[in-house]
Structures are given as structure tokens and as C-alpha cells.
Amino acid sequence: MSEPFFYNGKTVPMEDYIQQCDSYEDFENKYVDEFLKEENRIGYYLEKLLAKYDRKDSVVSFDAHLHHSYVGNIVREKKNNPSRNALICICFAMGATEEELQYLLKYAGHSPLYVRRRRDVIIWFGIKKGESLETVNENLKARNLPPLYKEE
Hints:
- The protein has 9 helices and 2 strands.
- With about 150 residues, it is mainly alpha-helical.
- Helix 8 packs antiparallel against helix 9 (about 135-140).
């Protein structure tokens, strides 16, 4: 399976671009703006999403069924390894798009939502259709799939 590479608004298999270059340096110089940058660490990206959606980190944490300081700790780099489920819950709580969720998952080192995973399809459907986190969690549990969060 090829890693998608976004260039000039198109998704192309990254291998196609690599094959067109004679060296790593050639690739790096030609596509320098496409590499993930250090300043785009997960906390930085999450902070930008919070600003975009005009949300407070503690409110998003609460709405995502996480500890009240969870999102703030990611933004302040006190928590560097948030779980895949937590990031999905955070995106639902913010009202993020599917593209933003996919990017956040990939950037954090987690697998993106995958259409051949039944659980992922339920999550994907929920975010695309604007369902609440609670509805998605109930849909997962109704199908005997692991929930995104455990109810207290």
C-alpha cells in the first residue's frame, strides 16, 4: 500500500514522486514544503484546531470524556503520546473534519481511519455525518466493538 502524498491539491502515491527524482536531495529540494515540520508537532496542530473552532482545551477535554487537563497537556507538550481513541474523541468534541482527524492521527503516529476496518467505518461515518461522540460510542457498543471511551 502506498503512502498518499499531497501535492498541488492532488493525492498521488509518494512513490511516484520519489521515482521521478535522482536523489534524496533532489526530492527534498523539490518538495521541501511537503515535509512535516518540527513546529507542527501534535500540540501545535491541536492548538491551531482549538483556535479554529474557538474552543477551550478544558471544555474539549470534558466533551471528549477525558480528564479536564488532557487536551491542555497535549498543547503544552506535557503529554506527548495521546492514544488514538483520545485523539478521535477530541476531534469529535471540537467538531473537526474527517481530514483534520486523519491528519492528527497520522501526525501522532497512529493509523488513520481505514475503510476496511468495521470499527473505523463507524467512526468515519459518524464524523462525516456530524454525529455526536456519544452516538458513535453507542453504535460501536451495539455492534460489540470496542468503544472510544468507557462510561463512568
